[in-house]
Amino acid sequence: MALLDVRDLSVVFQRKGATPFTAVDGVSFTVEPGQTVGLVGESGCGKSVTSLAIMGLLPRRGNTVTGEVRFDDTDLLTLRPQELRDRRGQDIGMIFQDPLSSLNPVIPLGLQVAEVLERHQGRSRQTALREAGVLLDAVGIPDPARRLKEFPHQLSGGMRQRALIAIALACKPRLLIADEPTTALDVTIQAQILTLLKDLVDQSGTALVMITHDLGVVAGLCDTVNVLYAGKVVERAGRHDLFADPRHPYTHGLLQSVPRLDADRGGRLHQIRGSVSDNIPWSEGCAFAPRCDRVVDDCIGETVPLEPAARGGALRCTNPVPQEVPA
Amino acid sequence: MSDALVEIDDLKVHFPIKSGLLFDRTVGHVYAVDGVSLKVRRGETYGLVGESGCGKSTLGRGLLRLVEPTSGTITFDGTDVRSLKGEEMRLFRRRIQMVFQDPLASLDPRQSVESLLVEGLKAHGLHKDKAAMRTRLRSTLDSVGLPASALNRYPHEFSGGQRQRIGIARALVLGPELIVADEPVSALDVSIQAQVVNLLGDLQDSLGLTYLVIAHDLAVVRHISDTIGVMYLGSLVEEADGDQLYERPLHPYTRALLSAVPIPDPQVEDRRERILLVGDLPSPAAPPSGCRFRTRCPWSQSRCVEERPELRVFDDSGQRVACHFAEEILDGSLRMHEVRAEIVRPGQDTPPEIGAGLIPT
Predict the structure, then answer these.
(1) Which domain holds residue B284?
(2) What are the residue boundaries of the ABC transporter domain, all occurrences included (chain A) (predicted)?
(3) Which of its termini does chain B have fewer beta carbons within 10 Å around, N or C?
């Protein structure tokens, strides 16, 4: 049975007097225990809102969340706030993009890590602080005993992100959601953090949902990748299949438009025309149609369904990129 | 006249750290750029890469004297830029223009596109002939792929990629010879990045521009640059042409940097060997003695502590590297060793009484 089963999740933002905006539009995916699943897309595709909706962290007013988020066969969306708080941090951990704004600047680091252990595992302050030291050591923070008494501003960006990982993993959750965990970091620090995440996931058997815009990060880390566009999953595949043989024109275009370090230089990059705002609503066809090179008449009219594709993947396209013939 | 458009020799930009309430005392310096020498040839793209805090942006700003360099010389097309005064310097800036990272922050939200573009023309007295000016505005907008109707609109009406096009148009309208582009695509989405990268290439071909591109994304820099300079903590550690740098990185930092860049291909990712650097960038206010990179270098030796390596020409290819042991590392006679993470503490390396912020001299 899947650890996390997101079914038809939709988030609609509604402001008084404004037209409702559908940020997430019927997203479904599953995460098996120990698996790493990627959600990839550009800004505005709904990847972060999906993660916030799963955790129940969206503001209570101004939005409607529908669908099911089944974790261990309990629908998280139906839980009362108190029950949800028991789960967060205990069963599901989360890492955010900007470590400085997700740590409390006026509380010593040690207390911020220990807090989780006190709340969920009923440790005393003393024991919790001692365990916090062990945790900081495990995520590779040198001299943890002294670090416990320090404040977030005294740490570098990479160290803060490590501290955040320590907090998220304090109770050995079965699921970890990482929302752009390395976007604010330099590449050499990004490599450190990704290696750390990979090791921790391998050792503890924690399942990981990795949310990112960086296809390179996904290529090295995720078992299954979901590509999001305008609030819907447009393609899902195992990472080897996705990168070797992308079927959706959007995925294909994205992969082609990134300059690769190991490719030949020069020449023009493939470009996807228009911008993310040039969409048509999904109800009137394929949202990507106005920017798509392979657009046909069938793309416009009615919603394109997400259909199963080869090797357990799925695809939402009427005129997919032809499969490469194996040589 | 040589083919170098810009020559920078031993450029230093130091920011004093001030302290005290009534009397400013200088209690130390941030060595943002500390002795960089490089040449940008006419018509080429020079890419400057490095991580945050390595001084790459300060170098670009120092070149335009947007921050005043502490010492060193800048020669632009035979003119000594640092000796220019007041009005001379202002008029000179027409020849070097800058494109900034965040187009929304660098464009005044209350100015229409026309007013943004005309401002530079006015400053250089090019607005007198109204008809010629209008043609100029239209042709500039056309060259960056924006419709002429954009003139009456405001920055917020455009998408991120279009805003960056406005930023490029603003730089182009004065007909500069050199464009310093500081992180021109890093604020943009992947699919839009490609559009702007292609645009920069097209403009270079049609107008014969010279670029100094400053960016942290090695893959983007490698795609557009003829020559790449790698910076670490205020100094240039390696310089080579784009292919050479990837084929044969010489400096340990370049190797680590190249191995850290994720490649969107799982088969490559699974087989890659990574050189993981430990720890963080030391504080530029108290750089390590000798080689700046030695605290994180897996090949560092005792000589690296004592002597700061000069940027030297490595071989006939013109590749330059600042490492004592580049040959030994390349032929494998020097082995990697363990490096322990040193704690980088902003409060510790710098003198204890830091008061006010950084004020450029």
Answers:
(1) 255-344
(2) 6-255
(3) N
Give B129 to chain A, closest Cα distance, Å: 35
Read off φ and ψ for residue A227, nearest 5 degrees: -100, 125
Copy the structure tokens of residue B14: 């130091």
> What range does the domain containing A323 cover?
250-327
C-alpha span between B288 and B305 (Å, rounded): 8
- Whole-angstrom Cα distance, residue A193 to residue A167? 15
Structure tokens at B167: 């930023």
The DSSP secondary structure of B239-278, one letter per residue, reads: EEEHHHHHH---SHHHHHHHHHS--S-HHHHHH----PPP
For residue range A271-307, list pLDDT tens digits in order: 888 877 778 888 888 999 999 989 998 888 888 889 9
The total domain count for chain A is 1
Which of A100, A223, A264, A271 should one mutate to test binding to chain B, selecting the residue with the greatest count of B CBs within 10 A?
A: A271
Is residue B343 pLDDT above 70, yes or no?
no
Do A269 and B194 lie within an 8 Å CB cutoff? Answer: yes
Backbone angles phi, psi at A262, to 5 degrees: -100, 5
- Rounded distance between C-alpha atoms, residue B164 and residue B170, angstroms: 10
Taking the CA atoms of chain A, what radius of gyration do you get in angstroms? Answer: 21
Starting at the earlier edge strand, list the strands of the sheet with B96-99: B96-99, B178-182, B210-215, B45-49, B227-232, B235-241, B320-321, B312-313
What is d(CA A307, CA A285) in angstroms, rounded to the nearest whole number?
15
Task: Please indicate whether, in this complex, the C-beta atoms of A219 and B259 are within 8 angstroms of each other.
Answer: no
Pairing of strands A175-179, A207-212: parallel
Tokens representing A76 are 């998280």
- Average of per-residue pLDDT across B344-348: 47
Domain count, chain B: 1
A107 within domain boundaries: no
Asked if B259 reaches chain A (Cβ–Cβ under 8 Å), the answer is yes
Residue A235 · residue A55 · CB < 8 Å? no
In-domain check, residue A297:
yes
Q: What is the 3-state secondary structure (H, E, C) of B72-112?
A: EEEEECCEEHHHCCHHHHHHHHHHEEEECCCHHHHCCCCCC
Which residues, other chains included, contact A4 with Cβ-Cβ below 8 Å and sequence gap of 6+? A30, A31, A54, A69, A70, A71, A175, A207, A209
Distance CA A227, CA B187 (A): 21
Predicted local distance difference test score (pLDDT) of residue B173 = 92
Which of B258, B343, B346 has the CB atom closest to A261's CB atom?
B258
For residue A140, the chain B residues in CB contact (below 8 A) are 341
Least confident of A105-109, A206-210, B171-175, B188-192: B188-192
Lookup: tokens for B199: 């645009």
- Pairing, β A314-315 against β A307-308: antiparallel
- Give me the mean pLDDT over the A191-205 stretch: 88
Radius of gyration of chain B (CA): 22
Asked whether residue B302 is domain-assigned, the answer is yes
Of the candidates B190, B219, B269, which has its C-beta nearest A219's C-beta? B269
